[in-house]
């Protein structure tokens, strides 16, 4: 291909490069493969016994709005309490609880009773909150929902404690919308999830270990998009190549012009 052809190709490619974000453009794409695997997955409709003693189906709790589901057990000496505290604080900060979603904290310890659920709710001052539900379920039902959501747990030998993960899953119409894992510190991602529950697509997201420079920055507080310094780095090679091609053509054009005048 001639230099003129290379320059033309660069001119065609430049707008495409400028429009391509450095971060993948995919709403709801989680930051880990484990989260991505369950996105869109059907969730089994299991029977629950709530802290007040009532029996409800999972689908009833999420009938008219989304449901944020997390797992805990009453005797946990590890992450359960700080994780539930984070969910309580973060949902209050982000907003939308009650209007856009409810929260279900489901025990995965078959030794937990309704009295344990009531005690847990009182611990967080949530016993009178209609948008928070603490529940237990049967062993088979727990295995079904834990398997569907890929929530892992195992009892420690000679102990009442479990090794387990931290997981918050948004469910709507019986399917997973998005999963957040890893523990407290995910408030921004929860805020983005609430935007999605309100019907606003989040076209860009920040992944774990994200680069310092990005082409497009999304502000989940306002939903606004703005250009970042990464866009300049993205288009700089194309601009340099274009300048080099134009510089290579310039002497030829000058020689032709001189020849025509002579």
Task: Characterize the structure shown.
There is one protein chain. By secondary structure, this protein is of the alpha+beta class. The chain has eight helices and eleven strands. The chain has helices spanning 3-19, 33-38, 58-61, 80-94, 114-123, 139-149, 187-197, 230-261; strands spanning 47-50, 55-57, 66-72, 101-107, 132-136, 153-155, 162-164, 167-172, 175-181, 216-219, 224-227. The strands form three sheets. The chain has a seven-stranded mixed beta sheet with strand order 2-1-5-4-3-8-9. Strands 6-7 form a two-stranded antiparallel sheet. The two termini are 30 Å apart. Mean pLDDT is 78; it is low at 1-31 and 204-213.
Can you give keywords for this protein?
262 residues; alpha+beta; 40% helix; disordered N terminus
């Amino acid at each position: 291909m001639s230099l003129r052809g290379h320059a033309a190709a660069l001119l065609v490619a430049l707008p495409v490069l400028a429009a391509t974000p450095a971060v993948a453009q995919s709403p709801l794409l989680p930051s880990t493969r484990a989260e991505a695997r369950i996105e869109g997955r059907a969730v089994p409709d299991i029977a629950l016994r709530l802290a007040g003693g009532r029996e409800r189906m999972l689908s009833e709790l999420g009938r008219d709005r989304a449901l944020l589901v997390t797992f805990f057990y009453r005797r946990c000496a590890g992450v359960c309490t700080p994780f539930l505290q984070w969910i309580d604080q973060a949902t209050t900060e982000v907003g939308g609880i009650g209007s856009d979603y409810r929260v279900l904290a489901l025990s995965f310890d078959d030794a937990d009773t309704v009295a344990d659920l009531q005690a847990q709710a009182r611990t967080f001052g949530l016993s009178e909150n209609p948008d928070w539900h603490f529940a237990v379920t049967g062993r088979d039902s727990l295995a079904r929902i834990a398997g569907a959501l890929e929530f892992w747990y195992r009892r420690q030998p000679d102990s009442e404690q479990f090794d387990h993960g931290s997981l918050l899953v948004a469910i709507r119409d019986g399917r997973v919308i998005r999963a957040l894992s890893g523990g407290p510190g995910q408030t921004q991602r929860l805020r983005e999830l609430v935007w999605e529950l309100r019907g606003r697509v989040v076209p860009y997201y920040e992944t774990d270990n994200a680069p310092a420079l990005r082409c497009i920055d999304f502000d989940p507080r306002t939903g606004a998009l703005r250009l970042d310094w990464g866009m300049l780095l993205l288009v700089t090679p194309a601009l340099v190549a274009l300048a080099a091609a134009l510089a290579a053509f310039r002497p030829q054009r000058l020689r032709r012009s001189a020849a025509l005048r002579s």
